[in-house]
Amino acid sequence: xxxxRATPLTGExxxxxxxxxxxxxxxxxxxxVGETRVRGLLEGEDVLATAAAMRAFGAExxxxxxxxxxxxxxxxxxxxxxxxxxxxxxxxxxxxxxxxMATTPIAATFTGDASLRSRPMGRITGPLAQFGAEAYGRKGxxxxxxxxxxKTPIPVRYTLPIASAQVKSAVLxxxxxxxxxxxxxxAEATRDHTERMLRAFGAKVAVEDGADGRVITLKGYxxxxxxxxxxxxxxxxxxxxxCAALIVEGSDLLVPNIGLNPTRSGLFETLRDMGADLDFENxxxxxxxxxxxxxxRFSPDMKGIEVPPDRAASxxxxxxxxxxxxxxxxxxxxxxxxxxxxxxxSDRIDAMAVGLRASGVDVNEGEDWWEIQGAGPGGVxxxxxxxARLDHRIAMSFLCLGMAAREPxxxxxxxxxQTSFPTFQTLMSGLGARLERSNx
Length: 440
Ligand code: S3P
Description:
Elements: E1 2-4, E2 10-12, H1 19-30, E3 33-39, H2 45-56, E4 60-64, E5 67-73, E6 85-86, H3 91-101, E7 107-111, H4 114-117, H5 122-131, E8 134-138, E9 142-148, E10 157-159, H6 165-176, E11 181-186, H7 193-200, E12 205-210, E13 213-219, E14 228-230, H8 235-247, E15 252-259, H9 266-273, E16 277-286, E17 289-297, E18 306-307, H10 319-327, E19 330-336, H11 348-358, E20 362-366, E21 369-375, E22 385-386, H12 392-404, E23 409-411, H13 424-431, E24 434-436
Parallel strand pairs: 2-15, 3-14, 6-7, 10-11, 18-19, 22-23
Antiparallel strand pairs: 1-23, 1-24, 3-5, 4-5, 7-9, 8-9, 11-13, 12-13, 15-17, 16-17, 19-21, 20-21
The structure holds shikimate-3-phosphate.
Residues 20, 92, 164-166, 169, 191, 316-317, 340 line the site of shikimate-3-phosphate.
């Protein structure tokens, strides 16, 4: 796909439903007895793979008009799947599902695309082994991987060695079908959708601030009761039109109904620290999550900053698009404490650094940090041909860069965008972007 200099981005950007909440809605719906209805589910490939997986474990999952309906089988009610569970590109999907099945005495084999097959799973199978589950995978704990669920699960007290909501959620989901109390301790707060949603479904979840961080205690064997869920729109998807509006001259965009859970909204704080013209209108609460309409305007006076490392967890998926904005700011933006970026759908520091350098931007990097030398609002040459590396956020970030750079930017494969933001091309084109499929 080629992205040429855009006309001013104006109008309203209706981005899809939140990916994290969509996965969790399907899984928790499948673990409840009765009918869960979900509005605003993200119909991207990642979430559709989780829907298919829930069917394979015995739940009924169907689309009914603009709602999704799940008839769950209850905690401990998962059936053994007849075939391999293919989670496609979805790290969240596979890791949360492994947790959800690990304390039921069934076997399941998981796989995914080349990106997912290269990602570390030991971070999940390690704590699941403490419950009594066994995992047999490829070297380094890579997929394909088989889990034999624990026959007599033991509750676990687990301190997260890395800031990861996926690991936290896998442990909590496993704890549902274990006796007693499962405890997860996290030094840094990661997205808390699992805790909020478990409570909404009727589980007992206590959260306390302890000496070592947040202590989350779940009581085992709850009876989860089905819910009606309204999924807020995804702040991580909103990041793309918002950031594009900041760098495309003359833009003035409204991005309505965005989930602004504080464990997810670090990017917007950072953009404001840089001097971005951003407003949060109509702030309210919907379904237990804070929501607002975001207004973003062209911001030619943004300055590079040092992004506080303790903000990393709340904006972990947004560093690629932040690095694009930083390229159009004045001065240096430094991002530290971000080694997790190297094990996302791609090595995101490397993928961005290579493409930004090819676009005329100066980038320095180390194992867990990178720095962008901003070229100012008119200073980014563009003209690069970049590899998306099966990573939706890399593809969308470079297409946004092309909207404001002097020369068009080409992305070799835009198909990964289907995983999280299937309407990206139509939506952005409708606002003023010039995105075309290239004939290679
Ligand atoms: C997610 C957690 C994060 C994030 C991912 C979604 C979740 O991953 O990058 O896109 O829904 O729990 P980590 O847990 O690996 O940080």
